[in-house]
Amino acid sequence: MDKKTYEIGVHGCDDSSCFEVELTSDEFELVKSICDKCTETSTCFCMPTMDIEEKLERTQKAVSLKTT
User: Fold this and answer.
1) At 60, phi and psi to the nearest 5?
2) Which helix (H) or strand (E) holds 7?
3) Distances (CA, A) of 15 to 39, 56, 61
């Protein structure tokens, strides 16, 4: 299975942690559901939230920004 690089962020009221990880599409779906559940159950500003985003190459980001 092909893997893509993603950035996972964990955010609290006073700090954040972000890291890159390579995942298959099935692994991404699992981690995405965990991120969604964590964020959904966060009921105040200081409770942690999570997000996951595909990490794009720098040139892809530059092209994307120019076309929007």
Assistant:
1) -65, -40
2) strand 4-11
3) 15, 24, 25
Question: Cβ distance 47 to 11 under 8 Å?
Answer: no
Q: Which residue has the tokens 């595909």?
A: 54
Q: What is the pLDDT of residues 17-48, one digit of tens each?
A: 999 999 999 999 999 999 999 999 999 989 99
State the number of CA atoms in the 13 A half-sphere of 19 facing the CB.
Answer: 5
25: Cβ–Cβ under 8 A, 6 or more apart, which residues? Answer: 1, 2, 4
Bridge partners (DSSP) of residue 49 are: 11
In total, the chain counts a number of residues equal to 68
- DSSP helix/strand/coil, 3: coil
The pTM for the full model equals 0.77
* 3-class state of residue 52 by DSSP: strand
